[in-house]
Amino acid sequence: MDTTATTTTTATTTPAVAAPTLTVDEKIQLITRNLQEVVGIEQLKAIVAERPLKIYWGTATTGKPHVGYFVPTTKIADFLKAGCEVTILFADLHAFLDNMKSTWELLSYRTQYYEHVIKGLLEAVGAPIEKLKFVRGTEFQLSREYTLDVYKLASKVSQHDAKKAGAEVVKQVENPLLSGLLYPLLQALDEQYLGVDAQFGGVDQRKIFMFAEEHLQAVGYKKRIHLMNPMVPSLAAARPAVTPATPAPEGAAPTATATAAPALEKMSSSVAEAKIDLLDDPSTVQWKVGKAFCEPGNIVQNPLLVFCKLVMFPLLCGKPFNIARAEKHGGPLSFDAYPALEASFAEQKLYPADLKLGVSSFINQFLAPIRAKFSKPELQELVSKAYPSEAAPNFGNKPAAEAKGAAIKKAAPALKKPAAKPAEKPMDISRALFLVGHIEKCEKHPDADSLFVETVNFGAHGKATVVSGLANFMAPENLAGRKAVFLKNLKPSKLRGVLSQAMILAASNADHTKVEVIFAPDGTQPGERVTVAGFPGEADDTLKVWDKLQPGMSTNAEFAATWKGVPLMTSQGPAKCSSLSNANVK
Hints:
The protein is α+β, with helices and mostly antiparallel strands. It contains 16 helices and 25 strands. Mean pLDDT is about 80; it is low at about 1-20, about 240-260 and about 390-420. The protein starts with about 25 loop residues before the first helix and ends with a strand. The strands form 6 sheets. Strands 11, 12, 13, 14, 17, 20, 21, 22, 23 and 24 form a 10-stranded antiparallel β-sheet that branches. It folds into 3 domains: about 25-230, Rossmann fold, CATH 3.40.50.620; about 275-375, Tyrosyl-Transfer RNA Synthetase (Orthogonal Bundle), CATH 1.10.240.10; about 430-585, CATH 2.40.50.140. The chain is elongated, with a radius of gyration of 27 Å.
């Protein structure tokens, strides 16, 4: 009986076609480059010499995908260029089986979220998604044949082997649920039911891959090829731990060494401040990269260097990595390849602050189209439904899981304590909602010669009318069609009979004889939030403290708008006026 799954995919697909100029060796080089390990290389060579290789990559729809997902997506692009037929499995059932990571009720929303994100990632790295097959696990994993095979495999696998196989992937607890022990069994069977030659995944999947090689044959199925990419590390400091000096063969005990370098933890969706979410705003990206462990000259335990090697340079596709360092610190830097970057850092010619500046700028530029995609109201609603407990970032606070598990003390009615006052928000610029607005129309106010009335498009935030006192300093055509920065959460007010629903930011010299608007760089999208690094808080619904925040606003020597010297950043760089430095901004 043919047990290859016949599934309903979530996208119309076409088999990937290799470029006719590629030789077999060139295809193999594309398939295997930048991988950490390949198991079954001779089998791979034999198949590629005859026909397109069939590969699947699965991702369990649990925590939010982060920038580490660029590693598998760049490899998927390689597979497609090599003519492989690629299936992406949204492993919704696996997500439910992984201890404590997701409820059944959230799975539908999270799977939808993953589908939008993964497609966005693949588009960002230039992979033709029309040549991919997208499958959800529940489309075939609940069939009669698949279920019977799960029981067959369960009858041949010990609790010890199942727990060992999932040790690097399934959340480990002292008394594991049976669901977590089933996880590796399902992942092994997916290879058969998806009809593939190879499974691709991170090196953290190695134990499950070896489990599949050993146990699939026990139920009459052949073992597959396994392709493993390295893992993007956490941005946190290296953990002091004894690690194996060299990889040990499967089944053999690793030889530990007390002098081994501290290991870098992989980037995890569950540690908010140590990973960069694909929807983090520019200032949050800068803040997280700024906090990353990065010792001067340390090229061994350096998560940012690993990120550059595994993610950034492959995505640059031969283009140089440029760091816009200020002239007073030595001027701009450029690196054509990773070895040059590493050598410069080892020799301490490239400082941690420079590296962090370049990495955060690169990430923000690359994430811009994904942020723009998710600025749509329907996708914002999907995010809130998929991750309802993550409505606001949690940087260093008590973990949500611990907070949920805390006991709630019940006081007697007579002893009820008065409700505690909500914590006061810090007096910082995160409370101001600065948005990029596209000025669709600008004309003179009907009843005031010094005022303009602008119609402004804020993307997902809708359109608004803005009244500004700029008519004595510029012509309407200087604003119409431009993208400027607006303060959007002030209370609307009427100016000479016209309701103004936002305030345009502008710089002025000391005697207010020259005024220039703060414009957003080319490439920014209407509705994008403009942020200040180091202040990742949520904006007020209605800002009532602008008079206390505004004195910190000014332009710097590069004409960028700043708050207390820190630039207002968009996904494409700082927001600037044209020529006023050290000027007041309001």
